[in-house]
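Checked the freezer inventory, then went back to the computational side. Two predictions to log before the end of the day. The first one is the construct we discussed on Monday; recording sequence and tokens without edits.
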Amino acid sequence: MTDTSYRIQGATGEWEVVIGLEVHAQVTSNAKLFSGAATAFGAEPNTQVSLVDAAMPGMLPVPNQECIRQAVRTGMAIDAQINRWSRFDRKNYFYADLPQGYQISQLYHPLVGEGAIEISPDDKRPDATKTIGVERIHVEQDAGKLMHDQHPTRSYVDLNRSGVALMEIVSRPDMRSPAEAGAYLRKLRAILRYVGSCDGNMEEGSMRADVNVSVRKPGDALGTRTETKNVNSVRFVMAAIEYEAKRQVEVIEDGGRIVQETRLYNVESGTTRSMRSKEDAHDYRYFPDPDLLPLELDEAFLADCRASLPELPDAKRKRYDGLGISAYQADVLTAEVEAARWFDALLDAGAKPVAAANWTTSELFGALNRTGRDIATSPVSPAQAAELLALVADGTLSGSLAKQVFEVMLDTGDAPAKIVEDRGLKQTSDTGAIEAVIAEVIAKNPNQLAQYRGGKEALFGFFVGQTMKAMGGKANPAVVNDLLKTALAG
């Protein structure tokens, strides 16, 4: 599928936007890429810095095998080429928070080659997919952080992030709208979180995107691109693309030209601004790092990586489809790994797939949203939810009673059977008791009875409601319907 619906209308006609993303994802590991220093978020400044991270003389880097393993597993998750031989390069530039004066990265021989990610840009049409190419994944070390708000005239340097392992995941310029870019970033984040190679926490900076945007008339050659650096949310990525594409169209139509440059996105104004001219590879004087041998991966290592992969979102959605779950619900249930694991545990506890999907996506997710909780802090366990659904399936609870029981479960954490017993919420199918109540309802509403018998059949719902109300919602709705039809027929 190609998105041809997103076009920018300029004075000279329609323009197409071309988008590529370079996503920096912090590798999940207890230590940094080339040192044993910790990687925990939120530590006091400069408390997680080794002599290697601080670039002290004579300190030599040693690759962290776990960081390499996580990058390889990520490549396998997107069916990418895994390069058994790769090499680290030095990328030379000066930043105040880069103690070495260079970054150890991979340019010429990355760890992971070409792969692909399938996206669904339209939430209302999850089956309408498009494949986005991934050019490469390479591993590199992060720089430190400049802190400008600690002193009125000075900037301080925090090296806690210096040397932290990053995967740079570079897409092909295959996206044609903000919606496609948003779908790609969400899907990539989901894959990383399923694999466990990155926590995907964009607010903490463990995943951020450099957004490459150019515009052209449909069918023309690619235009000059700009790169908007370090955008840290899906919403901001989409907004940056929309603004930058319209800005470029205006510049070109006013007789100007787009220059290859690095830009920054301003969250407050929703605009981008120029940061510096965009460097090319030769500006960084890349050369093989003399302190590091090439990485050579053997078959046993690759087999271990492959065997460790979990069921991924696309495979899980396909499995759910085979269980009769709708494409929309499968998309919702697999969007976050925690929700998917919770739902799988619900199925393992014996819940019927379709009923479980209906209840989870409506009742559970709705309640969690209302109470500001997420699935990880849900007071209702999958086993308890399976028990509640079983009570509905065997007729112990009606739908309305199940809602009451669920609300009590949210408040107390008690098991549904205990709540039903303690509060007397069991549904009744006692035909004698129901018939008695129906007789009272009909007697109290002679006008409605006459209208119903006169042809106003919509009033049947009125009698059902009055009967259920009189019985405190505890009557079996199917029994009520059958007995009412007989009673109203007279």
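The second is the one RB wanted added to the comparison set:
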Amino acid sequence: MTSNTINLTGKTALVTGASRGIGRAISEVLMECGADVLGIGTSIKARDGDLTDHAVRCGTAFTPIDADLSDRAQINSLLEGVRRDHVEVDILVNNAGIIRRSPAESHSLEDWDRVLAINLDAVFQLSQAFGKQMIERGDGKIINIASVLSFQGGILVPGYAASKGAIAQLTKALANEWASKGVNVNAVAPGYIATDNTADLQRDADRTASLMARIPVARWGEPREIAWPVAFLASAQASFIHGTVLPVDGGWLAR
């Protein structure tokens, strides 16, 4: 099972938040394009069977790695393990992210700290570590998962909106420094995608109706519809694309 249009054979990708939703779809699609995948999740070793089977069907490899990305010590252990195993990461996909919903005036600092730790701090720590290696090789791809809230403020999600706005600017900042060194840094900004993170919205009939009325395509997106643009940005076909934040939103930002 391989893609005839995007060839990532021989590449190794590290995908955070790989156990479900968008991250799982990204892992599957990258394997379909020929890449081996290191999948990061808080308890991914206990649920990686389907992804391992998918890798076998694709003729690639999937390696699950447990890590809580809100904990810098666990990120350091993850990085040490990758170095110890002499794995060269060609493609870094910073996908892991959480949402905490509450009015800004009552949004807890604990929620704020955890959202920023996973959605932003971990992205920089991983990008910095693997970016150094990519610079040394003169080649590499970093794809961050931003959001339509990188462009808008959202409702009841101050920490999430702040983190995703920062991801857009971090993507541009890293691209400014690393494009000339052979490293492509870009982001995909999903719109409203049917995942666990949007489960509350999907269950709210009134909110869903108002969202669908605003989206020109008038439906929720599917995780694989985010995964394929990520695979493109990870490919040689995207060699001249740097610092782009690509909305994949069913037309949300156009209206």
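For RB: Residues 13 and 37 are 5 Å apart (CA to CA). The beta strands are 12-16, 36-41, 62-66, 91-94, 140-145, 183-190, 245-248. Let me know if you want it refolded.
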